[in-house]
Amino acid sequence: MTNKYTTLPVEKLVVLVQTTGDGDAFSALISPMAAELQAFLTRLTGNPTRAEDLGQNTLWKAYRKIDAFAGKSSFKTWLFSIAYHEFLQSQRKANRLTRLINAVSERIHDSSEHSVNQQLDLQRALNTLSTEERAALLLAEAYGFTHPEIAGTLNIPLGTVKTLIRRAKSKLAKKTTTHHH
C-alpha cells in the first residue's frame, strides 16, 4: 500500500496530523521509525510480545498527544521518550527490572573474540546496571543517539547522561575483565 504522504518531510507531516488528525499522514510519519522503535523496546524488555504491546501503546499515545509535540526536539526523540516512559510505567506495574539482551554487548565487545563464559559475565554485568544506565548506554551504543537526544528521550539533564554512560561503561569494563576461575 503506497501512502500519498511518504514524500513529505517530517515537519510537514507533524503539522498535517496536528491540524487534521489524518491517520495516513500519521502512518507516513511513524513508519520510517517503527522498526527501530520496536527493536528498542524489544531490547529494553527482552520480550518481543511485551515490546509489541508497548509499541502499540506508544504509537496510540503519540497520535493522541501529537498536539503536545512542539518541535523542541526531533520527532524521533519525542517518540522514543514516549516509548521509554511507557516502558518505565510497565516496569512499575510489573515491579521487576528487565534485562537488556546482547544489543549493547555486541556494540561494545566483538562477540566473536569472547568465550561463552565471558558472554555470561557480560550479561551478568549488564544486569548490575540501573535501568537508566542500561537505557542510556543502549541508546548511545546501539542506536547512535547523541547525548542531547538521550537527555531528551530519558528526560534527564545532559550532565546526567554523560555520567550514566561513563558509569555504565566503567561497571561493564570492571565486570567483564575480571575472570572467575
Q: Can you put this structure into words, describing what you see?
A:
The protein is elongated. It is built from nine helices and no strands. It has 181 residues and is mostly helical. It folds into two domains: 1-98, Rna Polymerase Sigma Factor, Chain: A (Orthogonal Bundle); 100-181, Arc Repressor Mutant, subunit A (Orthogonal Bundle), CATH 1.10.10.10. The model is unreliable at 95-103 (pLDDT under 50).
Helix and strand layout, with pairings?
Blueprint: H1 10-20, H2 23-45, H3 48-64, H4 75-94, H5 103-108, H6 116-128, H7 131-141, H8 147-154, H9 158-177
Helix pairs in contact: 1-2, 2-3, 2-4, 3-4, 4-8, 6-9, 7-9, 8-9
SS summary, helix count? 9
Instruction: Specify the structural class.
Output: mainly alpha
Radius of gyration: 18 Å
Q: Can you count the beta strands?
A: 0
Main beta-sheet annotation: none
Per CATH, the superfamily of the largest domain is RNA polymerase sigma factor, region 2, helix turn helix motif
Q: Could you state the order of secondary-structure elements as H and E?
A: HHHHHHHHH
Helix content: over 70%
Task: Label the overall shape.
Answer: elongated
According to CATH, the fold-level topology of the largest domain is Rna Polymerase Sigma Factor, Chain: A
